[in-house]
Request: fold
Amino acid sequence: MRVYNFSAGPAVLPEEVLKEAADEMLDYRGTGMSVMEMSHRSKAYDDIIKEAEKDIRDLMNIPDNYKVLFLQGGASQFFAEVPMNLMKNKKAAYIITGQWAKKAWQEAQIFAGDGAVAVASSADKTFSYIPDCSDLPIPEDADYVYICENNTIYGTKYKTLPNTKGHILVSDVSSCFLSEPVDVTKYGVIYGGVQKNVGPAGVVIAIIREDLITDDVLPGTPTLLKWKTQADNDSLYNTPPCYNIYICGKVFKWIKKMGGLEAMKAHNEKKAKILYDYLDQSKLFKGTVRPEDRSLMNVPFVTGNADLDAKFVKEAKAAGFENLKGHRTVGGMRASIYNAMPIEGVEKLVEFMKKFEAENA
Ligand SMILES: *Cc1c(COP(=O)(O)O)cnc(C)c1O
Reply:
């Protein structure tokens, strides 16, 4: 029996995708082998990765002057790839809205020291809001402005992008990838680890404006971490995470079938509203995020009593709602309600919360 899995990542995937992958496990479309077993240079695999790229381009409406790269190393490795590939002046502006932005900033400091500047932060209130980014002190010679667009741990999301004052915007979208339409042209680089909303851990998808992919990288940048290497070889410079990219491709098709990113957004808004509406009138549970900055994907909440929180998580688990424990820095609970979480999952969770509230009032 499958549970309702509210994990922040690796996270729930569409059941249809998993079933299809199971059907194709032993014999992928008459090849007599699993996708796990085939050469990444084979015709069958070439079709898989090309089709995956085509489908994500369709979904996100990615212009021709952007490359789509399928990479490894997780979002955390990409934290280092950003300065390695983009720093010309060793100057960059970071907006600190949580742990992942902070880690990316710290990684940039390895290369640029004080040149990696934090131009805004919401650390003063446990990252429970997105700072005003309309007029930030961005250094004139900054190579880029960096954000984490959806903060997986704290449950905040940018509703408007920062004013970068003409600088390139780099955005980590790991936990909101393909959750709603985006205007790719507003970014220099959009990237994310796929294990939150798109596929199995082990793949990073990076969408990079072509003019930012050059040989002019920081000295010492390894061959594999140079975007130009990956771009020149269509993400096949070395063996990619073949099977995981194949699953991502299936998720792209599933989203297309669901109606694309507009439909995904409507689906996600509907789910989030059910949970937030309940939280807003509950006398027991409280959302922790400033309402206008709330994420559609990650919903942290607390009772204000650590023992009661623990009791809730335990009883929820017994009732088939898994992975609701919040991140240790926020405490309480967190429901991650990614694309593949069905509406019934959220409805049933709220029903369960109501019952818990009544029993523990
Ligand atoms: C999970 C997460 C990361 C880290 O991803 P890894 O692939 O584990 O390195 C980075 N940024 C965000 C927004 C995340 O949610």
Observations:
- The chain has nine helices and 14 strands.
